[in-house]
Amino acid sequence: MIEFSEIKQLAPLVHLRLTPSEVERLSKDGAQILDYVDRLKELSVDNISIEDDRPRVKLREDRPVRFDRVGELIAAFPRKEGRFLKVPFVFEEQNG
Amino acid sequence: MANRDLSELTIVEAARGLRAGDFSSRELTQSCLNNIRQKDKEIGAFLSVFQDSALSQADLVDQALANRKELPALAGIPLAVKDNILIHGHRCSSAANILKSYSAAYDATVIKKLRDQGSVFIGKTNLDEFAMGSSTENSAFQVTRNPHDPERVPGGSSGGSAAAVAAGESLAALGSDTGGSIRQPAAFCGLVGLKPTYGAVSRYGLMAFASSLDQIGSLTKTSEDSCLIFRAIRGRDPMDTTSREGRFSQGREMSKLRVGIPQQCFGEGISSEMIKWMKRTIDHLKDLGAKTVSIDLSGLEYSLPIYYVIAPAEASANLARYDGLRYGQAELAESLKETYAQTRSRGFGLEVKRRIMLGAYILSAGHYDAYYQKAHKAKKLIQLEFGKALQKVDLILTPTTPGLPFKIGDRVDNPVEMYLSDLLTVSANLTGLPSVSIPVGREGKLPVGMQLIGPDFSEEFLLRVGSHLEWLS
Predict the structure, then answer these.
(1) Nearest to A78 among B324, B364, B377 (CB)
(2) pLDDT one-digit tens code per residue, B312-341
(3) Which of residues 236-275 of B touch A (CB under 8 A)?
(4) A18 in contact with B at a CB cutoff of 8 Å?
(5) What is the pLDDT confidence band of residue B249, given thresholds at 50, 70 and 90?
(6) What are phi and psi of B441, to 5 degrees?
């Protein structure tokens, strides 16, 4: 069961600010979904190992390749100064 | 051909007609654009329509045809593209407010390949926000309606793509499938919907939902058309390291076919209409000489719970990038954290927030082992079960959906009931196996789809079998 307090703890961790009605709704929905998902408890997976499961990937060569449309990426910045992306101050002020 | 609405043609028919000079690509494209103008106010399939660029693309193909150039199969064919697949220079919103102002800086690999074919991109279609949904009711912008019955959903999340093809607004469409999001809307709209083998088609340029499950595929009128699109878009891509070349299997001839029928498909949760059509399909396969084998896929009932642990967990990670700093809508505030919180809270819809929160809960300390680890081990059980079954049979037949298309609004307030739409489709994503939905008939005016699941890289085999099952009556 997802408790109200757990929702309130988790939301800032995923950078969401939820309204009181969203907290109530998501808590109720989350409980219903987890209730459904809990049937996985019926499955015995004691003999199953996933330690050696590796994704089947073939990495490409680690070689820089020029991207010719940097201008378009810069144009998409919500705030910019020249070619630089402008963001709020990253480090929070420390008190004391 | 003169009296037939060109938008009713299949890709194969259109390609033949273009080469015979019966009509031009411009006329073909204009026919689809006319249908969009006449019908889309009600249907709501498209988020953006590329009137000018589509006709310019068509004109280039017409010029090449006039110069008697030999052209690829999909040249001059109008295609709709789900709005979570990037087309350079065009808006790509994933039907989310947070991306309503985002314009793609590059083409997805599948788009590049289709562009090289000379395909005509007619517009971007509606979807459930970030591909999270089974009805296309979760779009931030509009609801899409089923052309067969506008009071019902077209399915989701590729509902816009499905509705566009079913309404004659495009000859075919691209979609994406994470848990059934091509196959379920294909079934609801009377189309062929193909989810390829995981890795068969590059995901570069697809806005990620759950990276271990997502695949790009097609929605078409026929299996033959689906095959053409698959051949054009498949292949290993250095930009997607999960993509791979496959040894594509042609499978057996129909008279030697062994079709696995899961016992679970006649049980709880499957409607009487689906059972009836399942039996009709089995009878037809037997008439063609195939042998049916009853198989036990007891893991099927756990596929959906597994999916609803793994998918939200991956989604919560994939959607962390939408923070209002580098692209998209930004709700700028004094501090960085406030900017993130405001941007995301205002930019995401409720279903997306639900899945992000669920994912965060599942991955948090204290719950990780019980949910995420457990789900991954259970996923392996499903993979082993399907692998064993496909040693005894050549392919597996199930209904695509547990029931007929439901009415708009019926399930929006009940997430689990909505999620149950994908009961029969999620296993193909969990196992990575290719799967296709074939329109086999109608119940009244509502289409019915059956699903074929095969071994890795058996897409062409599945489509060949599927071609024998289209519109049984």
Answers:
(1) B324
(2) 999 999 999 999 999 999 998 888 999 999
(3) 236, 238-239, 241-242, 244
(4) yes
(5) confident
(6) 175, -165
Per-residue pLDDT of B280-311, as tens digits, reads: 999 999 999 999 999 999 988 999 999 999 99
Structural domain count, chain A:
1
Q: Which of B157, B158, B161, B218 is catalytic?
A: B157
Check if the beta carbon of residue A43 is closer than 8 Å to that of residue B373. Answer: no
Q: Is A65 on the interface with B (CB under 8 A)?
A: no
What's the mean pLDDT in B456-469? 97
Q: Is residue A27 part of a domain?
A: yes
Q: Are B105 and A55 an interchain contact pair (Cβ–Cβ within 8 Å)?
A: no
> Which residues of chain A does B335 touch, with a Cβ-Cβ cutoff of 8 Å?
88-89, 92
Query: Which residue ranges form the domains of chain B, and what is each CATH number?
Result: 6-233 (3.90.1300.10), 254-297+377-472 (3.90.1300.10), 305-369 (no CATH)
Calculate how close chain B gets to A57, using CA atoms only, in Å.
5
Residue A70: closest C-alpha in chain B: B105
Choose among A17, A34, A85: nearest Cβ to B345: A17
- pLDDT bin (cut points 50, 70, 90) of residue A89 is confident
| Cross-chain CB nearest to A45 (options B212, B323, B374) | B374
- Give the ipTM of the model, two decimals please: 0.91
Given B344, B354, B376, which is nearest A29 (Cβ)? B354
CATH number at residue A8: 1.10.20
Chain B contact set for A58 (CB, 8 A): 236, 241, 244
Question: Looking at the complex, does the CB of residue B378 fall below 8 Å from at least one CB of chain A?
Answer: yes
- Domain limits at A32? 4-41
**How far is Cα B428 from Cα B124, in angstroms, rounded to an integer?**
26
Check whether B426 has a pLDDT greater than 50: yes
